[in-house]
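Deviations from the work plan: none for this task. Representative record:
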Amino acid sequence: MQRVADLDTPSMVVDLDKLEANIQRLQASLDSLGLANRPHIKTHKIPAIGHMQIAAGAKGITCQKLGEAEIFADAGFDDILIPYNLVGAPKMERLTRLARRVKMTVAVDGAVAARAIAEACDAAGVEVTLLIEVDTGMHRAGVQSPEDAQTLARAIADSPGVRFGGLMCYPTKPAMVAFHAEVRDRLTRDGIPLEQFSGGGTGAQQVSKDAGCTEHRSGTYSYNDLSVWRAGNCELDQCAMSVLVTVVSTSCPGFSTIDGGSKTFTNDALQTTGVNGYVREFPEIYLEKMSEEHGVLNLSRLTDASARPRVGDKIHVIPNHACGTTNLHDVVYGYRAHGSRPGDGTLSGDELIEVEWPVPARGKIR
Amino acid sequence: MQRVADLDTPSMVVDLDKLEANIQRLQASLDSLGLANRPHIKTHKIPAIGHMQIAAGAKGITCQKLGEAEIFADAGFDDILIPYNLVGAPKMERLTRLARRVKMTVAVDGAVAARAIAEACDAAGVEVTLLIEVDTGMHRAGVQSPEDAQTLARAIADSPGVRFGGLMCYPTKPAMVAFHAEVRDRLTRDGIPLEQFSGGGTGAQQVSKDAGCTEHRSGTYSYNDLSVWRAGNCELDQCAMSVLVTVVSTSCPGFSTIDGGSKTFTNDALQTTGVNGYVREFPEIYLEKMSEEHGVLNLSRLTDASARPRVGDKIHVIPNHACGTTNLHDVVYGYRAHGSRPGDGTLSGDELIEVEWPVPARGKIR
């Protein structure tokens, strides 16, 4: 079997033991809370990993774009939520085609989007379940009040082609306890059943339980990343995904440069701390600056200056944001570590590649 | 012909009149300065646009990764510079294969990278020209002093398999006048000819001329973007590329949300001003926040609140960073505006698509 250390760089690599453990851990957490699991596939964009999530107990999946849903429907997934307003004639055509073959649920936050979906579904003779998105603080979409939710729910309940399902939010916040209760009361008086409440956010499963959610959507938990670790929702050792890179320059005093930058890691979640990537083999060194193809490692915390990475060294970098990084890689290599575990300062000659996955839902911007 | 306004969104679109004018304008500028033009293809990643640059007078092209060079060599480009340390056995194999069929020039900044290329080329029976990268302030790669450049030039001149060509920097800075002169003096004493000096940076062609460069590399000038405009190196009306998006939510007071975020535009060059994208149809509105699939437009500067974008409206957004945006799009639509010009507040029903380009060098991280 090929060794990870022999891969050309940059290459996205996934520790299969950690990936499997992450999938099992979240499923067990949601099982114990009595919440259905609807993982978001945006983190990996790979049907084979989605099948692992379903096999572990997930009831369905979440896709953010129709293009992702089309790829996953082709791969056999039959219960898909798109938690996003779908707007425009080409998307109505694609949505109704999907609804002919799989169970589609879509979130909306306004009457215009809801009406267009209802009319398209009615004309096509299909039914889509609509959830109402609630704004919990991202201020990018979502109704702002229980009254607005009630008004929209009434409109949906009165429309052919669509079924009113309930509510959706991201991330679930404690304020949803009261919001949910009030919407439920109002709709009960209207005779409209509120069956589903889809909450979300890696690490927010207890909040979803408290808010009365029926299901929970997590994405990043499958790979984990520095942002999840900083939020206290995983251990560093539970980060399954990293990018193997090569040191290409040591000319600038105080820095070493790797062959991956924002085109490899994204500039997502750039931290004011200046720490934008964790280097597994050199925990004192961190990815500080990026341009498109250069990543600059800050060496200032290195206690033994003679141990600095040298040109040609290959290292694993855990990025800030797994989902954005995934969207930049056409291929992902799944490996298992054999013998001594990484993290002890040795390079990873004992990591053997078991699978090479294409990333078919990468780049599905539509 | 299909109208831009009928495209599904998000879609990257390029105004062909502006693209052609941008290509002609830079070529004329470099012609008048007597500098050879070696455009960087990372901005567009499309061979057809590279051929337009060659037809206008460019002597060759610049690619940042071997994967880009392989795509462009396949498309008929025969003089390619990679201004980047290539490190590792797989890259040596790929470089020597390329050097068998096209003229390859590679920049290095240290003896390890130079020696590996020389040994690989010697073993393969090919020759590659090496330039020495000089650090002009990016602090990511490049020799730090004329002495270091001399030492490395001597090593290269003594190596079989490679030819010493000269210097390379990005971006060209005024300090390069003295640096170049001192390196030239030192190498003259050594009997080593310094034939080439490749400078770079959109807008920096006069600085390259002053520093004694023989050629100039620009990338972003072909499309232009908000960053180039902010730097004073283009007019807004010279931005040829934009992304057509649809307004999908108006639920959050003070904001409208579009169906493209960091997965469509990147988070590159996020500005402290909070302005991360220019909206052509609504100049008072700007792209403020992004998550992966949401872009949040700030409406606070809108003088006529009744004129705010509505759900379903399609608008053109000029992004901060053209090159990063290009890397997220599998397809680009080239159009020409007919009839009334955009910018007068009307939507763009008169933009007709002439060409649909795949982006074959997208995602070439290796």
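The two ends of chain B are 37 Å apart (CA to CA).
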